Amino acid sequence: MINLLSDTVTKPTPGMLRAMMAAEVGDDVFREDPTVNALEVKCAGLFGHEAGLFCPSGTMTNQIALKVHTRPLDEVICDEMSHIFQYEVGGYAFNSGIGVNLIRTPYGILSADLVEAAVRPPYDWLPRSTLVVIENTCNKGGGGAYSLETIREIHAVCLKKGLALHLDGARIFNALVAKGGKPADIGAEVDSISICLSKGLGAPVGSVLVGSRAFIAEARRVRKAMGGGMRQAGYLAAAGIYALDNHVERLLEDHTQARRLADTLAELSWVENIRPVETNIVIFDLKPPTTPAVFLDYLTKHGVKASAFGPQTIRMVTHLDVSSDMIGQAIAVLRAYSA
Ligand SMILES: *Cc1c(COP(=O)(O)O)cnc(C)c1O
After folding, report:
1. Angle of CA points 216, 179, 240, to nearest 5°
2. Substitution candidate for ligand 1 out of 54, 83, 197 with most atoms within 8 A of CB
3. Whether the CB of 70 sits within 6 Å of ligand 1
4. How much of the chain exceeds pLDDT 70, in percent?
5. CA of 139 to the centre of ligand 1 (A)
6. Which residues in the chain come in under a pLDDT of 50?
7. Of 43, 97, 158, 319, which residue is the least packed, with the fewest Cβ within 10 Å?
8. Is 7-246 in CATH node 3.40.50.300?
9. Phi and psi torsions of 144, nearest 5°
10. For residue 339, what pLDDT is reported?
C-alpha cells in the first residue's frame, strides 16, 4: 500500500527505534525523566522560548494553549479552516468555555487586516476577543505556509489590541523548510507554539507546547487535569529528539513528491481546483460525476490510499514512508483513471 492518508501514518525507522530503546527515563510527573526534559529544552530553545511541555497529542497542546490564554466568555479569532475549530471536537467550548470568531480565507492564511477587523469592541454583551490562533501550515487549506512578514503584521495587531497569539505549528517545520528562515524568527512573533512530532517528523507519538516559563507552569497544571501527565515518557520523547535531529531537512523531499503529484493532477481532465501546493499536502476536487467514494475505491484497488476531504474533495499527503518510486507508481495509477 502507498499510504497517502496522512503524514501521521509513518512508523519509527530503525534508527529512531534504537534511540527509543536507549532512552534514559524517569517519572515525568515528578519531572524526573531526563529525556522528556531534554526534548522540552530543545524545542523551547529552537524557537527562542523559555520552556516546553511534552504532551500526548497536538490536540492536547492546542487545547491547553486555549485554556491558559483565555477565560470563559472570551473568544478566539481563527480561520474557519483551522484545526482548533474543525477537528478538535469543539474542545474550545468544552474545555475553555470560549467561543470562536471565524475568518474566511481561500487557503487558511490570515492577514493582519482581517484579524484587526475581527477584534470586538469591549461591550458587555459581546464575547471578549483575547486570543488569535494561526495555523502554519494550514492543513485544510492545502498546506500553505505564512510568510514571516505576515506573522509579524498579525503579531503587531495582537500587541496593539492586547491579544495573545498562539501558533498551531503541527507542521511548522514544513513551513520553515518551504519558506526558509529560522525557528526563532517565528518564535519571536508568537506567545506559544504547538509543535507536532508525529506528523512529517515521523515520531510515533507526541507534541510539544512552548512558551514563557509562567505560561508553561500553568500549562503543566492543565495537562495534568486533562490526564496528560505521563510517567516514563522518555521513550517517546527520545523519538522526538531523534526526529528533530534527523528528519527536518528531509521534509523538502516530501514537498518535492507532493509537487510531482500536483503536476500530474493538473494534466488530468477529471481534476479541478488543485489548492496551491507549497508543502506536503495535495488537496483537489473531483469533477462531477466522479465522487470520492468511487475514486477512493479505484485507488484502493490499485494499492493507493488517500482520503475524502469534502463532498468532492480529495487529500493526499506525502511523508517519510513514501519513496520517490512509490510516488511514481501512484502517478501511474492516477494517469490510468478515467472518469
Ligand atoms: C494533526 C494536527 C493537530 C493535532 O494533532 P493530533 O496529534 O492528531 O491531536 C493540530 N493541528 C493541526 C494543523 C494538525 O494537522
Report:
1. 40
2. 83
3. no
4. 100
5. 9
6. none
7. 97
8. no
9. -70, 150
10. 81
